[in-house]
Amino acid sequence: MKKSKIAGVGMYVPKNVFTNNDLTKYMDTNDEWIQERTGIKERRYADRIGETTTTMGVEAAKIAIERAGITAQDIDFIIFATLCPDYYFPGCGVLLQRAMQMKEIGALDIRNQCSGFVYALSVADQFIKTGMYKNILVVGSEKHSFGLDFSTRGRNVSVIFGDGAGAVVLQPTEDSNRCILSTHLHSNGTNAEILAMYNPGTHANHWLKEQTLADFDEAELGETFMSHSMIEKAQLFPFMDGPTVFKVAIDKFPAVIIEALEANNLQASAISLLVPHQANLRISQFVQKKLNLTDNQVKNNIQKYGNTTAASIPIALCEAWEEGRVKEGDLICLASFGSGFTWASALLRW
Ligand code: ACO
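^ thats the input. predicted complex w/ acetyl coenzyme *A below
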């Protein structure tokens, strides 16, 4: 049976650097609090008018396609993972197809937030293995800065997230030693509202009335798709119960990595590089300790870019590759955890 391999990887981050001190102009926060809790020193914000989630994805895709030694015309399927699409619909995949003047190929959007890239990679892997496609472009891109609450009210969420994009090209290979070895996908919707953006949506309070989210006025929430009241009460921003996310993340992250290792009869010590979703440096450090990995075995770059959700793994993978930390024959583990909750891993031999 055919396997798939990553033939090219690319990334794009906006030029605009926003430090923790820059955030203090808008909200009551400070560099010490942010670094201590999250490890983040700075993040990038897209140009408000000139850049979108899709245009950043295009920039990352161009590099991945060039490194794969092909052209945009060779791509035969697009998978685009994001939680902040340019439009509510249609998705970013078709906008990228148009922007890159690709053939009339299929374009699939994935909405699995922080796990979006690993989910997308897994879907691409299956299409390659069945022989359906030969050059699949997988993109993760986020323009978070457009939808965050930059007042003190939203500080527990807004200080964490940054903008950027990453992309890979997947191609078939006969070499079962240089390929994606396995992918593992999970979800549990019990905590769906713990890390979520409820509006605009069609929920009509169906789920939220069961919740005890003191920050929200249930009577106002969800009566319409969007209302003035939602704007006034800041209900068009993401909500996160950070401590609960932390607790579940430090359980599921190691579990899904161990699952991938066991499926391939490998030990954590065999990992050349773990590229975790850059959720929070404290979470990555916990995972590293739990698996007894050295600093050299883990890629962290949340310090520079913040949490870029679906883009964080391909950005970190690309940066590690450019630094020479991803070499032929290396065992690379990608792992994610995020809203839903969803969590996932992929083990690959580069
Ligand atoms: N600056 C200063 N003070 C702040 C800030 C801020 N940016 N945000 C919150 N605070 C204050 C709160 O108001 C609160 O003050 P109080 O005690 O006077 O009420 C205090 O800090 C503690 O607030 P908590 O929300 O309990 O903060 P906590 O110590 O739990 O840290 C954090 C928050 C960093 C989000 C933590 O819960 C965490 O690491 N959670 C994991 C979630 C995560 O990393 N999510 C990333 C995105 S999701 C993902 O990618 C999977």
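The pocket of acetyl coenzyme *A is lined by residues 29, 33-34, 37-38, 114, 155-156, 159-160, 195, 242-243, 245-246, 249, 279-280, 282-283, 307, 337-338 (CB under 6 Å).
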